[in-house]
Amino acid sequence: MTERPSWDAYFMQIAHLVKTRATCPRRQVGAVIVRDRRILATGYNGAPRGLPHCPPDGDKLEWPSGCLMAGHCARSLHAEQNALLQAAMIGVPCEGSTMYVTCQPCNTCAKMIINAGVQHVIYEGDYPDAFSLELFGLSHVRLDIYREGLLVPVEASG
After folding, report:
1. Which DSSP symbol is given to 111?
2. Distance, CA of 122 to CA of 154 (rounded, Å)
3. Catalytic residue status for 124
4. Which of 38, 50, 67, 156 could be 133's S-S partner, Cβ–Cβ 3.0 to 4.6 Å?
5. Contact at 8 Å (CB) between 94 and 117?
6. 80, 124, 134, 155: which is the annotated catalytic residue?
């Protein structure tokens, strides 16, 4: 019998599986919202449901036919946003939950995570958004980086 993964490893592995559904060619991100070791919702980055996915060469096109507007993806919702929206759509509150995400949340996602009542964010991979870290610090949302099976606390400014 193989060694069982820790709960953090288990949920981060699920977030990595979720990101394989992403439709954005620029970056694949997966998110899993958990409370009491139970999955509440998942999300990956991509176009809103029922709308066309990002074109494979989205980086080379300009909005509205492509994905970029001011250098940022304009067609896709982020994985964190989709996970929070999925929870809302099925009537599951996120108060007191933990979000596992394969990339550091941006500041827009950070604001949504804070307002949804998520208490703890565990992420892998960096994203160049120091303001999101500041927002998490001001909100007292616990923030950890998942590295090689360990949680490393993020000293968020704020």
Report:
1. H
2. 10
3. no
4. 156
5. yes
6. 80
Is the pLDDT reported for residue 48 higher than 60? yes
Model's pTM, two decimal places?
Answer: 0.90
Residue 56, both tokens:
């494979």
> For every residue of 26-39, which 3-state class applies, written as one string?
CCCCEEEEEECCEE
pLDDT tens-digit readout, 56-69: 655 555 555 556 55
Measured at the CA of 36, the angle between CA 117 and CA 104, to 5 degrees, comes to 50
> In this structure, are residues 110 and 134 in contact, taking their beta carbons and an 8 Å threshold?
no
Instruction: Tell me the two tokens of residue 113.
Output: 């995570």
3-class DSSP assignment, residue 9: helix
Distance CA 44, CA 47 (A): 10
- Which residue shows structure tokens 């820790």? 6
Q: Is the pLDDT of residue 75 over 90?
A: no
User: Which two structure tokens, joined as six digits, stand for 98?
Assistant: 């933990």
Question: Is the CB of residue 6 less than 8 Å from the CB of residue 34?
Answer: no
Are the C-beta atoms of residues 103 and 125 closer than 8 Å to each other?
yes
